[in-house]
Write a structure and sequence with these properties.
alpha+beta, TolC family protein, OMP_efflux, four-stranded antiparallel sheet, efflux transmembrane transporter activity, 67% helix, disordered N terminus, MdtP/NodT-like, disordered C terminus
């Protein structure tokens, strides 16, 4: 459990690094984590399941019940047995003497199910935290899209003003002004669409803790500061301790407990009974007793033993299949992360700075009458598209990072270096 708690803490820490916030009032990622951990029904459900399994443990710890009985013979018959004068009354106490360790096997099985529930809850908790991080990222991404759209609107407004001045001076036709205004309207549409996406993403995030009308704000960190992560070989080694595979350890314990319980059924139990009998011919009493044992229990127990063994074998195969699937998922997420991180970094370092200089030069040339509106507008559109491409790459890298964190449950000791802070949108 200490290992699982450490992995959970590491996941929270890494997500907090990925999306830093700097204000107390806006909702932080840690705040969202706490709200989900305290209120989500998928986690609260484990409390009821734990109580049910504890009751099952208490029931499994009970020994066979004592059975008190009374038997009356030779009554209401004919001849000497008429009436109650010839009645013989026997009072008895009976039970079952369990053999083969059945009581311990039942306890072990019930306790192993309780232990497995704790790991299952932590795995569910980790999955929920990953979902919180993804939805939080969606809000931050939509907010950043709105900021980029606003930058484009501001640029298009300056373009419309410049085109209008040139038209008024007779240096360009009215069609240029109309074209610039249409481009401005399209940028305003992109801004409105980004705001709608942000509102929808905020509602989607708040739904995780049941908030119907979210009014919180989010201060997202720099999405372009994508951290470095460990090599794939190291991540693959961490994958062996992922919650999805750790659950198989507990499932194996449950399977072994079931096998032991099935084996204990091969040992027959003794049915015993003792009592005292009142004789019919007076006030004399006598002790009575009996012992019985079923025959053929070993043969009847064999199907259950074979089934328990088969379940253990199938569990090992299932673990192998899940391990391969997780490894494939990790490899795919690691590949996506590397490609997206490289794309975002190179766009920021090489493409956007050059486009910014080219767009500024085109603006100067257009105002001086040395360049056409089409050249300036084309560079503006290309620069805006590059910004969006960089943001999309950064979001893809962050989503892949969340998936890697979910799979490994580990913090990445290699934090962002100086190069990671480069490539910010100019």
């Amino acid at each position: 459990m200490r290992l699982r708690s450490a992995a959970l803490a590491a996941f929270v820490a890494v997500c907090a690094v990925a999306f830093p916030t700097h204000a107390a009032d806006p909702l932080t990622l840690d705040d969202a984590f706490l709200r989900v951990a305290d209120t989500h029904p998928d986690l609260r459900l484990f409390g009821a399941r734990h109580e049910a399994l504890k009751a099952e443990l208490d029931r499994s710890s009970l020994r066979p019940a004592l059975v008190a009985g009374a038997e009356v013979e030779n009554v209401l018959g004919t001849g000497p047995a008429s009436g109650l004068d010839g009645a013989e009354i026997t009072l008895s106490l009976a039970s079952v003497l369990e053999r083969g360790g059945k009581l311990d096997a039942r306890r072990t099985l019930a306790q192993s199910r309780i232990d497995a529930l704790a790991i299952e809850r932590e795995a569910q908790r980790l999955d929920l935290l990953a979902e919180v991080a993804r939805r939080y990222l969606a809000v931050v991404g939509a907010q950043r899209e709105g900021e980029l759209a606003q930058l484009d609107v501001d640029q298009r407004e300056r373009t419309v003003a410049a085109a209008r001045r040139r038209h008024e001076a007779g240096a360009s036709p009215e069609s240029v002004v109309l074209t610039a205004q249409a481009a401005l309207a399209r940028s305003e549409l992109d801004r409105a669409r980004a705001r709608q996406r942000q509102a929808a993403a905020r509602q989607h995030l708040a739904a995780l803790w049941g908030e119907r009308n979210p009014a919180f704000e989010i201060l997202g960190g720099d999405l372009l500061a994508v951290p470095q992560i460990a090599d794939f070989a190291v991540l693959a080694d961490w994958l062996q301790r992922t919650p999805e595979l750790a659950q198989f350890v507990d499932q194996q314990r449950i399977g072994e407990a079931r096998l032991q319980l099935a084996r204990s059924e091969a040992t027959p139990d003794f049915d015993w009974q003792v009592g005292v009998r009142r004789m019919a011919d007076g006030d004399d009493f006598g002790l009575v007793g009996s012992v019985s044992i079923p025959l053929g229990t070993t043969r009847r127990a064999q199907p259950g033993i074979r089934a328990a063994r088969a379940e253990l074998t199938a569990l090992e195969i299932e673990r192998e299949a899940v391990g391969l699937s997780l490894y494939s998922t990790l490899a795919e997420a690691h590949g996506r992360f590397g490609v997206a991180r490289l794309e975002a970094q190179r766009l920021g370092e090489d493409v956007l700075p050059r486009l910014a200089k080219a767009e500024a030069a085109a603006a100067t040339a257009y105002r001086a009458g040395a360049a056409s509106y089409l050249e300036w507008s084309s560079l503006q559109a290309e620069r805006a598209a590059a910004r969006q491409q960089q943001l999309a790459a950064a979001l893809e890298a962050q989503r892949a990072l969340i998936e890697i964190q979910r799979l490994t449950g580990q913090a990445f000791v290699a934090g962002p270096g100086p190069q990671d802070n480069q490539g910010a949108t100019p």
